[in-house]
Every structure is written in structure tokens, then in C-alpha cells.
Amino acid sequence: MTGFGKGEATCGDKKFRVELRSLNSKQLDLSVKLPSKYRAAEAEVRQIVTRELQRGKVDCFISFEASTVETSAHVNRDAFKAYVNELRSVSKECRMNVIDDAALMQAVLRMPDVVTSEEQEVSDAEIAAIVEAAKIACAQLDAFRQQEGAILIADLLNRIALIEQYRHEVEPFEMARVDVIKSRIRENIEKLQIEVDNNRLEQEMIFYIEKLDITEEKVRLDNHCRYFREVAAEEEAPGRKLGFIAQELGREINTMGSKSNEANMQRLVVKMKDELEKIKEQVLNIL
């Protein structure tokens, strides 16, 4: 879900720029920063980004450049002239020295109603230009995500293949451990030097070995791996679903580990867990 996108659009003498930066997040966490005079465009920009990006910690920066200098300050010429004439008249009546022009100007500019600030209205065309720039930025960021997503999916599928490989490598040790377990039980009984009913002993060993059977776990693990591949290939936004499947894979692998009771099998289970942890980390990067 990481990425960067930039869009630009012009309206008259103004060029609007929208920049998007996205990081991983389970939900959409959107922050929009823009000049206060264009606050009216924020709602529509949020709507577009939410619809197009869906997930991620997204920072949206909106700025503009104008080819002409803009100012909201306005000098009331009539008021300015009136204050100048009044001050000169008063100074003459009071027989004061000639007032310096620079000092007079500074004094007049501080008078009430001489300098006013007018808030310029934002046109619909300017709002439309901001929205257009936001759409372009979203498209660029989405293209970046798709490129990164293809690489991540390929990596995930390679790790699924490794889990399947380790799962098949378990089988030879699974068959061999039955004889090892039986021999170990008989050796322990011989050390105790007690008489046992061989038929009952065989029956109990069968019950014990059945509890260690991992056939169901292997079947479910194969199904989850197959489903993982299907979702990765067919779903438009598979991130969340792949995360759920990864949790199910973890349950089966953990159960296999608790039932393995054999060093070589446990080593293979550890390898599967290692690949699964990497899968869980990468799934968070997928939409």
C-alpha cells in the first residue's frame, strides 16, 4: 500500500498541485493539507481519495502557484486622501513644521478604514482543477501500488510453495517415527521390569499414535495453500482475505508442531513458521 502520486491542473493563471503519499495501514487514515481559501474542495478530494485508495495512511498535500501576484489588501483611496488633507490642514492651523511625506504615509495607513482586507471568492473552475489534480495523483499512486503489488504477490506465492515443500518433506519422518515411538515405549517398560498384557499394550500404543496423526492437518494445510493461490490470482483487493488465510495456515502448522514429537519434523515445522511469519508481514502491504 505504499506509494507516491502527483497530479497537476491549471485554471487561468493558477497551477494546482496535489501530492499523495501512502504508507501501510489496516484502515484508511487520510490527512489533507491545503490553503485555507480552498477549504471548500476538501470534502470532494477526500471522497475521491477514499474511493480510489481504500486503505493506507495517506497524506494529501494541495498547493498552487499563480503567475500574477495576488493580495487581499485594498487601499481606500478616498479615505487616504481625506486623512492626508485633514492632517495637513491641522498641522497648518497649528503652525507645525512641514510633515515628512514618509511619516505622513505611515500615519495615514494606520488610520481606520484606509487599508481593508477583502476575501476573494473561489470559483467553481478552481475547485474543479483541484479535483482533477487529485484524480491524476490517485491514478499515479494506484499504478505505483499495482507494480509493487505484483512483486509482493510473486514473493508470497514463492513462500507458499516453500511451505508446501516442507510439508511434503515431513512425510518420510512421520512414517519412521511410529516405529521409533513403539520401540521407546517398550524400552521404558523393560526398564521398569514389570509384566504387561501385550494385547492391551498394542491397543494403547495405537490410541497414542492416533493422537499424533497429522493427516487432517496436512489435508487442511494443502487446502489453505490452494485457496491462498486462488485468492491471490482472482481477487481485486486480496489483502484482508490473504491475511485471514494466513491465520488458518498458522493454526494447522502449530498443530503439526505440537503433534510432531520428532526432531526432524519439528525442524521442518519451524521452517514453515518462519515462511508464514514473512507472509503475514508482506500481506499487510497488500490492498
What does this protein structure show overall?
By secondary structure, this protein is α+β, with helices and mostly antiparallel strands. The protein contains 8 helices and 6 strands, in the order βββαββααβααααα. The protein has helices at 42-53, 77-93, 101-109, 124-192, 198-211, 215-234, 239-260, 263-283, and strands at 3-11, 14-23, 28-33, 56-66, 73-75, 115-117. The mean pLDDT is 85.
Enumerate how many helices there are, as a single number.
Answer: 8
How are helices and strands ordered from N to C? Answer: EEEHEEHHEHHHHH
Shape: rod-shaped
In oligomeric terms, what are we looking at? single chain
Total strands: the figure is 6
Terminal CA distance reads: 6 Å
Mean pLDDT: 85
Helix content: 55-70%
Please tell me how large the radius of gyration is.
Answer: 38 Å
Low-pLDDT stretches are none
Taking the sheet with the most strands, its summary is: 4 strands, mixed
Structure classification: alpha+beta
- Which strand order does the major sheet show? 1-2-4-3
Strand proportion, as a percent range, falls in 5-15%
